[in-house]
Every structure is written in structure tokens, then in C-alpha cells.
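Issue 218. Parser rejects a valid record. Input:
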Amino acid sequence: SVSYTRDVRKPVLGTVRVGLQGDQQTEGVDFDVDPASGRITFANAPAQDASVTAGFEFDVPVRFDTDGIQTSAASFKAGEIPNVPVVEVRI
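Output the parser choked on:
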């Protein structure tokens, strides 16, 4: 098993699911989410040794990696996508 840690700062609204000791919590009742920072705030602080889990979709801010994109009408056939290089922007 491989573990990977990633700071997520832009969760998609309405997709955040939080579990506390295996029980799903209710957004707006048990916890709130700051959509800009991704920070979860509980209405009541969980016990220090409580198991807290979360799942969600998130957006990744990116920028174009080049000043120009080479393409032609042939690149837009159904099912084809021209190469558009992007780079993640850390916020």
C-alpha cells in the first residue's frame, strides 16, 4: 500500500464528505467547509484520539505552460484533443 499526502485548498462545493469514528457527518450541521482554504471546522471539537476521515472532489488551479498553442482544424476531429501543456499553480 502506498500513502500520498496532498494539501487541498479548493474543494468543490457540495462534494465534501466527513466521517467521525466511521459515522458520516452533515455539512452545515456538524461541520463547515471554507471553499477558499479547504479548512473544515467542526461544530463540536472531536476527541483528540478520534478518527476523522474525509473525501471530496477538488479543483487544481493551472496556467498554460507556453505562450502559444500549435493547432489546426484537423486537430479538432471528434474524439481528438490537441496537446495543451499546463502547469499547476500552487496557492
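Fixed in the parser; the record now loads. Strands lie at 17-20, 23-24, 31-33, 40-42, 52-55, 62-64, 86-88.
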